């Protein structure tokens, strides 16, 4: 079943809502995570300065704890960067980025992806579409990425086909199309996105 | 120790030079990209270097540290190589291990921020060992490829500890020291692990086993 393109105005509205919600969410994560952690570090350093003046406290241990906190702040920044545009996707492409993604999800996922590169927008949209679908997967998923003529062909087999609508909303603005094959619950979402 | 360094971020590069010198090492060459370092090392053969420290994401784009390492390994087979990166990715680890499985290392930038850790990492690499970021080794053991999960889950807690330390590149003696057990006990655990994973015993030889273990944890094919 070919999913009909949604009315353009309706899709744009949904995409804009989603876009601004994501930006607000990222801002909140920056604030609640690394920003607060670094603010707290300045207080720890102030305390440390006082202890140096007083000649009290275990300097070595304090410094190691501060380095540990800096590592955590960097880990939080990496997690946020991953939601903006995964560095591995930018540097190595869809195959390596999807394989890394697959190792982190609960359900087993098999990735069969070509080595070549696509446009950044196409790779980004495809990556985040897969990520969203995998969040709702309940059994082994097969992900296939191929170059199909002048476009990207992405097949997601054994997934909740109800996700097809969300995938279509993601890829429609790139001129892509979504086809659902199989049952109303479990089936295959076939995505085609034209690109150079 | 005599060290050469290529890193495009000036702030981190300067900080690293200061820490290296504070640790008593000599920074022989220091560049902002890979090609310049290769040229400097070729131009001054009278200035031997023990370990080259390479950023991964630098010129030549996109991941200049890797082609630079390949060229350095071909021209100076005895030179140790340490990759420092902002990200600890299994994808890059596998590419690094295909450049070499001896005298090579991969660590997170903020994890070499002490004289002890930095010197220990450099010494192990100079002595021919592999050094892999413990966080990454732990993640690989905790999150193996989906068709490996059942087998890895069948390992005992102690065997998982040994597998993680093997994935960090530790020698038998190093593993024994970390776990406070005898080297004999470590050898027995390793034999059991290799049997359970179905890996050939000859892959347990130190320099081959990191690649064998990591390939196993990452592999999507059964029995590959």
Tell me about this structure.
The complex is a heterodimer of chains A (196) and B (224). Chain A contains six helices and five strands, in the order ααααβαββαββ. Chain A has helices spanning 8-54, 59-84, 87-92, 94-103, 120-135, 164-171, and strands at residues 109-113, 141-148, 151-160, 177-182, 186-194. In chain A, strands 1-2-3-5-4 form a five-stranded mixed sheet, with helices on one face. With 224 residues, chain B is an alpha/beta fold. Chain B has two domains: 2-131, Response regulator (Rossmann fold); 137-218, Rossmann fold, CATH 3.40.50. Chain B contains eleven helices and six strands. A six-stranded parallel sheet of chain B has the order 2-1-3-4-5-6, sandwiched between helices. The model of chain B has no long low-confidence stretch (mean pLDDT 93). At the A-B interface, α2, α3, α4 and β1 of A face loops of B.
**What fraction of residues of chain B sit in β-strands?**
5-15%
Quote the distance from N terminus to C terminus of chain B. Answer: 40 Å
CATH topology annotation of the largest domain in chain A: Heat Shock Protein 90
If you compute it from the alpha carbons, what radius of gyration of chain A comes out, rounded to the nearest whole angstrom?
A: 22 Å
The CATH architecture designation of the largest domain in chain A is 2-Layer Sandwich
Separate helix tally of chain A? 6
Number of domains of chain B: 2
Which secondary structure elements does this structure contain, and how are they paired or packed?
The complex is a heterodimer of chains A (196) and B (224).
Chain A: H1 8-54, H2 59-84, H3 87-92, H4 94-103, E1 109-113, H5 120-135, E2 141-148, E3 151-160, H6 164-171, E4 177-182, E5 186-194
Parallel strand pairs in A: 1-2
Antiparallel strand pairs in A: 2-3, 3-5, 4-5
Chain B: E1 2-6, H1 10-22, E2 26-31, H2 34-43, E3 51-55, H3 65-75, E4 80-85, H4 90-99, E5 104-108, H5 115-126, E6 130-132, H6 134-142, H7 149-153, H8 157-167, H9 172-179, H10 183-197, H11 206-218
Parallel strand pairs in B: 1-2, 1-3, 3-4, 4-5, 5-6
Helix pairs in contact in B: 2-3, 4-11, 6-8, 8-9, 8-10, 9-10
């Amino acid at each position: 079943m070919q999913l009909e393109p949604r009315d353009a105005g309706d899709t744009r509205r949904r995409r804009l809502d989603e876009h601004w919600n994501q930006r607000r969410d990222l801002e909140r994560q920056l604030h609640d995570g690394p920003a607060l952690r670094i603010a707290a570090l300045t207080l720890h350093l102030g305390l440390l300065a006082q202890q140096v003046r007083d000649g009290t406290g275990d300097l070595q241990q304090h410094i190691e704890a501060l380095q540990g906190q800096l590592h955590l702040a960097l880990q939080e920044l990496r997690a946020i960067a991953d939601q903006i545009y995964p560095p591995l996707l930018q540097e190595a492409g869809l195959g390596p980025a999807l394989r890394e993604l697959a190792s982190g999800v609960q359900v087993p996922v098999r990735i069969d992806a070509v080595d070549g590169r696509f446009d950044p927008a196409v790779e980004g949209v495809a990556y985040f579409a897969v990520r969203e679908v995998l969040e709702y997967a309940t059994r082994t998923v097969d992900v296939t990425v191929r170059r199909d003529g002048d476009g990207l062909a992405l097949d997601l087999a054994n997934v909740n086909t109800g996700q097809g609508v969300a995938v279509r909303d993601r890829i429609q603005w790139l001129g892509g199309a979504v086809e659902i094959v199989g049952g109303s619950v479990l089936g295959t979402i076939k995505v085609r996105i034209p690109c150079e | 120790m005599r060290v050469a360094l290529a890193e495009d971020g000036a702030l981190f590069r300067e900080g690293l030079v200061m820490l290296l010198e504070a640790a008593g090492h000599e920074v022989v060459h220091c560049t902002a990209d890979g090609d310049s370092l290769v040229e400097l090392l070729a131009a001054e053969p009278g200035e031997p270097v023990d370990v080259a420290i390479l950023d991964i994401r630098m010129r030549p784009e996109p991941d200049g540290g890797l082609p630079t390492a390949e060229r350095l390994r071909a021209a100076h087979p005895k030179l140790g190589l340490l990759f420092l990166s902002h990200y600890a990715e299994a994808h890059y680890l596998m590419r690094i291990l295909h450049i070499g499985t001896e005298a090579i290392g991969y660590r997170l930038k903020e994890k070499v921020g002490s004289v002890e850790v930095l010197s220990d990492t450099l010494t192990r690499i100079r002595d021919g060992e592999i050094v892999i970021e413990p966080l990454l080794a732990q993640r690989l053991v905790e999150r193996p490829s989906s068709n490996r999960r059942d087998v890895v889950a069948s390992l005992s807690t102690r065997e998982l500890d040994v597998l993680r330390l093997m994935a960090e590149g530790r020698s038998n003696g190093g593993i024994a020291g970390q776990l406070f057990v005898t080297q004999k006990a470590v050898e027995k655990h390793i034999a059991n692990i290799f049997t359970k994973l179905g890996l050939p015993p000859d892959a347990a030889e130190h320099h081959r086993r990191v690649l064998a273990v990591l390939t196993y944890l990452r592999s999507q094919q059964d029995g590959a």
